[in-house]
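Weekly puzzle thread! Below is a chain. First person to post its structure in token form gets bragging rights.
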Amino acid sequence: MNPTEPAVATPAGPVQVTTPAPREVWWDLAGRDPDLAVTQTPTWLDCLCATGPHRDASRLYTFPGGGRIVLPLVSRGRRPRRLDAEESWPAGWGIGGPVASAGVGPDEARAVCEDLARRPALRVGLRLRPQGAELWGRAARGLLRLEPHTTQAIDLDGGFGTVWRDRFHQRVRRDVKRAEKAHLDVEVDRSGRLVPVFQELYDRSIERWAVQQHEPRALARLRRRREFPEERLAAVAARFGAACSLWAAWDRGEPAAALVVLRHGPHAKFWRAAMDRDVAHPVRATPLLYRLAVEDACAQGCRVFDLGESAPGSSLEHFKAGFGAVSRPSPRYWRERLPVSAAERGLRTAVKRAIRFQDA
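Winning reply:
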């Protein structure tokens, strides 16, 4: 039985809050939310809790007229409440934010943001998807601080023929054709069998990033493995099952590149990529895998292919734009009772200066 908190008076009327949100309600709303992201599903929360020090703190808001909103949320389960962090989602886990079937108005959005701002946790955070971000941003104004973020996605309407012809840039089509002439061996795995191949390529990527960023290899391995521990991909593959596609390419038997795509309903999401640049780049293995993954998403009936976050003006944004990805705001709103994040940023900056770190 999920505990229900006392009703809260809001401009939308008395709101009943249940936490954790009942899964059957969450899945029901997820099935009727036309813009639901893969990372807003209970499956994603389960992956997060299985591979980190988090627990389910999701909240169901029930309004007088019968409207319901689920806010995906996790907390750091072992901390005292006043030292806790309640976020939707933590850094590195992508877009969270409210899930609703339809018809969320300003009063309902404001009620959710007021509840989040009142939470006793040291830090609260809310990462929004592009759809509806303006409404929720107005609701959060004066309660939570804005942190801009940008997400890029490919519109798949019209099918792959349209995407290839009208949205892929000429240079990307050229790279794909070059890869096809190289006769690479490509495989897609929906069972988790190729997880070790991805991990091998990810380890090689860490080595490359360390050199690029002038970072000691031991520190790079420690930092990257903390961000993405080895067991995380296996956990995601196991929980998503056939909805987790791991694409891999080999050149003459040598692993070249791999990427992971997740899917829920009409929404496909690129999640992770890794490569051995010395093997992959000459034969353009990575563009080929993206092309195949996008074509597969179209065949699965997806309407959007989410390529994730990129810094405006970055080389990564330019790379994704080559596949027709369009940038849209997906802001984060947050509040802290003590300036913990500022202290963490200051410490990271000092360490970067000490090792002459160079952001890629």
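Puzzle host: Confirmed. Bonus trivia for everyone else. Residues 270 and 307 are 5 Å apart (CA to CA).
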